[in-house]
């Protein structure tokens, strides 16, 4: 089985990590190992820990990193990087990379149920275990569905979609992606369906985020993983939608903030010191060439901070 995925912002990530040949690096979302291989190529006495929770990604990363003795592949969620590093006896690392995008493999393989363009069983589980999108749409209340679609998909017609999901499932469970697409299309007025891309895009994003607890896991990783960076170590994160980007931006800004005393205080009494510096105050975006070559890079944003 071929695990297809074109790594986004590849050269920008490698530059941002400022890789040392003897450093220890973590790719917390290894996927097809595109970023991991480029990190491993630059290591001599160093070490790479490639982590992913998707069994397909683990198989692909294990095969592609086999030529690199310094690379180790671990199946786990990036929210648990602290536990992974503790288990491996690693106290500090020199760089951590997260690519929060859904891989081309996950989108393109119909049976994974991530895509609104392929008719498939409703699944969307990155780990291929636990409750699926089918469970969510057939059991959650209208109120909870509405909240998920509004918060995670910023969907204007969230309530109407949720009500129509409830009406449909009273007759029979919603089993496939195209069944859900039809419900979404029937819930959105025709003029709105012609704007902003596929009408199911926001709903599918929201359900995928909820199924995989993506924002909760990102928050946990931001809190836990930074502790393991050595001074001078870099934390690089690629996001693909505004909710993720806002969370990363705010967390990095908070870590880079020093004194928070009122400006009229003659001296600092809070004692707060920054623990990181921002490598770039604005996100790093794909080049025009990458945008032309890889349509899935269009919403990518890379933010990087360095531990002080």
List keywords for this structure.
14% strand, DNA polymerase, domain 1, Rossmann fold, 42% helix, seven-stranded mixed beta sheet, single chain, 2 domains, 308 residues, 14 helices, alpha/beta
What do these coordinates show?
The protein has 308 residues and is of the alpha/beta class. It folds into two domains: 10-104 and 214-307, 3-Layer(aba) Sandwich (Rossmann fold); 128-211, DNA polymerase, domain 1. It has 14 helices and seven strands. The protein has a seven-stranded mixed beta sheet, with helices on both faces. The protein is globular and about 60 Å long.
Strand content: 5-15%
Helix content: 40-55%
Quaternary state of the chains: single chain
CATH class of the largest domain: Alpha Beta
Structural class by helix and strand composition: alpha/beta
Profile the largest sheet.
7 strands, mixed
- pLDDT averaged over residues: 94
* CATH superfamily descriptor of the largest domain: Vaccinia Virus protein VP39
The total of beta strands comes to: 7
Please compute the radius of gyration using only Cα atoms: 21 Å
CATH architecture of the largest domain: 3-Layer(aba) Sandwich
């Amino acid at each position: 089985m071929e695990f297809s995925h074109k790594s986004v912002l590849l050269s920008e990530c490698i530059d941002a990590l400022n890789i040392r040949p003897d450093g220890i690096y973590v790719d917390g979302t290894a996927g097809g190992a595109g970023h991991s291989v480029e990190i491993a190529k630059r290591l001599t006495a160093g070490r790479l820990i490639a982590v992913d929770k998707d069994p397909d990604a683990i198989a692909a990363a294990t095969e592609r990193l086999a030529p690199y003795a310094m690379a180790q592949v671990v199946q786990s969620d990036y929210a648990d990087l602290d536990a992974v590093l503790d288990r491996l006896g690693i106290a500090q690392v020199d760089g951590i990379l997260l690519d929060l995008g859904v891989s081309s493999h996950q989108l393109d393989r119909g049976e994974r149920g991530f895509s609104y363009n392929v008719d498939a069983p409703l699944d969307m589980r990155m780990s291929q275990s636990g409750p699926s999108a089918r469970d969510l749409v057939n059991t959650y209340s209208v109120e909870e569905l509405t909240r998920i679609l509004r918060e995670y998909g910023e969907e204007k017609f969230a309530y109407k979609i949720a009500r129509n999901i409830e009406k449909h499932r009273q007759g029979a469970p919603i089993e496939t992606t195209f069944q859900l697409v039809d419900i979404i299309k029937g819930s959105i007025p025709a003029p709105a369906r012609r704007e902003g891309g596929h009408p199911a895009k926001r709903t599918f994003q929201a359900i995928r985020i909820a199924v995989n607890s993506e924002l909760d896991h990102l928050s946990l990783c931001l809190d836990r993983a930074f502790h393991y960076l050595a001074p001078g170590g870099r934390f690089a994160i690629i996001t693909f939608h505004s909710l993720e980007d806002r969370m990363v931006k705010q967390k990095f800004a908070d870590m880079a903030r020093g004194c928070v005393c009122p400006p009229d205080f003659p001296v600092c009494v809070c004692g707060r010191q920054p623990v990181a510096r921002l490598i770039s105050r604005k996100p790093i975006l794909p080049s025009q060439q990458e945008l032309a070559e890889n349509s899935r890079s269009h919403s990518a944003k890379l933010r990087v901070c360095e531990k002080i």
